[in-house]
Amino acid sequence: MERLNSKSQKLQFTEVSIKERYLKAFHAKLILAFFLLISVVVVALISVSTGSMNLPLIEVFRAIFNNTENSYIIWNIRITRTLGAILAGASLGVAGAVMQNVLKNPLASPFTLGVSQGAAFGAAFAIIVFGAGQSHSFGTEAVIVFKSYPVVVSAFIGAILTVVLILFLSFLKNITPETIILAGVGLSSLFSSATMFLQYFANDFQVAATVFWTFGDLGKAGWMEVRLMFLAFIPCFIYFFLQRWNFNALLWGDETARSLGVNVKFLRVSGMLLSAFIVSVCTAFLGIIGFVGLISPHIVRLLAGNDHRFLILYSALFGALLLSISDLIARTVISPTVLPVGIITSFAGAPIFFYLLIRRRRF
């Protein structure tokens, strides 16, 4: 009888210990979410106050709530750029997390799957074939593509076409993560070659405009672009968050997920399509921004684990933070010249990517 009581007490102690550890880990993850959110807000405020003419925060708030001489700059240039960085970073971070899960590949991202290359081909086609590029000289910027919606629409179509072709080729061989990855690699090479083919027959300005578009520039974001990116991001994010338990089940393998009632094929296709959709919208407006979708989920996994109840939200927050910091660096590192943010994310992403490869964990 005493042995039974002793075993019962040990069992109760173990249950209490497990519960305490779970609550401690849960609270730590909530603190991380709060820290990421505050960091995004702080960086956003610094970004709005930073530019060719730095403004104190009090002047920024005065320009926002009152009609001052700085109101136009704050409302129509700096706030739109900052919101564009937050929305694009969040979209890329979430898309990367979902793609890496449904494809079971830690290297999966919009850039590695050819979505960005498809968008680049669409933009090049509009600029070179339709003559949609426009020249503009301002300061050190010699060529820019601005307010040219044929370029935006063509880039969006090119990105979506890439995903449709990937899924079509996958269905021919029965959809599997390996098939999708291989199809993405093949189409990435195809669209890159097609873009170079168009550039070969283009004039100097068209080539320059095409190259400039591919850099990725948050200065292209206006209120219309911000609204459309927001309208694309919110429903997709809600869907991904509602599927968080299904994504967790998929971590244990397709067979286990099916036994738990998950429609694996539908989850994989819907995850790919919606991820590509929000990335396509951002890429069409802002150009190619590499590494954010690849790096953000990996860093979040190091901090909070692979639980998609937290990973989806935290990838969005960290992606927004990473792109906002990159944009701030792009605007200040060689001020008054403003670098395209895509250059900064590529420079910063490469060493982080190599570091993660060295400390790679089982995905």
Tell me what you see in this structure.
With 363 residues, the chain is mainly α. The chain has one domain: Orthogonal Bundle (ABC transporter involved in vitamin B12 uptake, BtuC). Helix content is 76%, strand content 0%. It is built from 14 helices and no strands. α1 packs parallel to α13, α4 crosses α5 and α12 crosses α13. The termini are far apart. About 3% of the residues have low confidence.
State the main characteristics.
single chain; 363 residues; mainly alpha; ABC transporter involved in vitamin B12 uptake, BtuC; 14 helices
* Name of the CATH superfamily: ABC transporter involved in vitamin B12 uptake, BtuC
CATH class: Mainly Alpha
The major beta sheet can be summarized as: none
- Low-pLDDT runs: 136-147
Strand composition percent = under 5%
Shape: globular
- Based on CA atoms alone, the radius of gyration comes out at 23 Å
Range of helix content: over 70%
Written as H for each helix and E for each strand, in order along the chain, the element string is HHHHHHHHHHHHHH
Helical/strand content category? mainly alpha
CATH architectural type: Orthogonal Bundle
The fold-level CATH name is: ABC transporter involved in vitamin B12 uptake, BtuC
Q: With helices defined by DSSP (H or I, 4 residues minimum), what is the helix count?
A: 14
What's the pLDDT, averaged over the residues?
83
**Number of beta strands:** 0
Distance between the termini: 46 Å
- Total domains: 1
**So what's the oligomer here?**
single chain
